[in-house]
């Protein structure tokens, strides 16, 4: 049996295990980056079909809004149970469809389970404040109400977890969800939808069409963006996509959660623990073949640490196991497609032209001409310029020297994106400076761990061209609800605020 038939056949088996329809019917061809060959065909939605699904989600809203939040939480609990039972199959399908290594495919499903657990607890904690009123016999408070259907647009590189971050919160907040996954990874989306339907059937009284999936590219995503019946769109993807989506949402005064590109940096200080730093940088820069929004792309190394750290890092780059993500020994799987490979090579050529010394980067051998495996690249550069200022979605780490921490922080912040960041140091003052208002300008700032691999408990997202949205833990749920401020007069007089008189 060839690799092609085995992957396509395994995909069909996994989808059947997960309760999804066979992927044999439709115009959208899905390829596995493992060998670059087709693993399925699915039907695309057209604009009329998308409008019908959005209308169906609107119809589901009143009944779901009126279901008490802790009862809504029970549906999310059941969905989490389905994910627990099917973690192995869904995790493997993630690996086959987007190419991340198996432990990361499974980790993505674990992240879905974790956010479901979080959301179940949250369903009993959608708290508002009580507020002191300046008027006698008055009370003020905040109420949080469901918002309406939430559109979720997701990227290929986290094909299931990003949806779950949004969907688990939106569902306990009382909102139906409509998901437009990446056109590169529709099969995992259809599998998640099938698991959700199982949970809904066990729950027994969820309204029809509480969750739906729109299959297609940017045009179908635009149907969600432009529809007046979708009060919130959470869009994850490139800054280019965000630039297209944000003004259209603003034009109709819809809410946006934008989770866009990153160009994440780390600073290595003289007191850094070298062993720990090498491991953290290796995972953050090479893991997921450089295809995480939080991938480490820029490393600023103090002169005093440079000559110790760089040989260790280069050795890791030379020896890291690149290959099929289904092989347990592999740490770096394939790039998603040929375009990603070409973008990587173009960035490396540009860096060389700027005086960069490149280690790694070439294509690695594989059985298939349509698969793109690369040796991760480390580029030593004299200054931060050219391709360093952009996100190239591939495993390239640009390394630059510094001699003074203030200057390193300035350079760290001198890019358009503001997602995630790290400092490696044993010096309390350096760590606290990096975390302070004068330090990293990112939505995520870490000490002695890399910028990638967030837990669900914190709010996730970034500043500047990363879009400013927050998802997942902490109080990110507030974006999925509308806040009403209530003032209640339990007296017989009608005092006006600010001492205003209006005596009739
Ligand atoms: P992409 O921008 O090509 O596509 C992302 C999604 O947006 C897809 O579903 C796509 O169909 C849709 N889309 C594209 N144009 C659209 C439009 N005009 N209107 C509506 N929808 C549109 O991104 P990708 O290549 O799939 O993913 C990689 C990018 O995503 C990287 O830039 C990465 O940093 C970013 N990303 C960000 C986060 C985050 O949380 N900040 C997480 C994952 C990925």
TrEMBL record:
Keywords: NAD, Oxidoreductase
UniProt keyword Cell inner membrane present: no
EC number: 1.2.1.3
Entry GO MF terms: aldehyde dehydrogenase (NAD+) activity
Superkingdom in the source lineage: Bacteria
EC class (word): oxidoreductase
Residue ranges the record marks as coiled coil: none
Record domain Aldehyde dehydrogenase: where: 26-483
Claim: NAD is one of the keywords in the record: yes
Gene3D superfamilies cross-referenced by the UniProt entry: Aldehyde Dehydrogenase, Chain A, domain 1, Aldehyde Dehydrogenase, Chain A, domain 2
InterPro entries, per the entry: Ald_DH/histidinol_DH, Ald_DH_C, Ald_DH_N, Aldehyde_DH_dom, ALDH7A1-like
Name of the protein this chain belongs to: Aldehyde dehydrogenase (NAD+)
Source organism of the structure: Hansschlegelia beijingensis
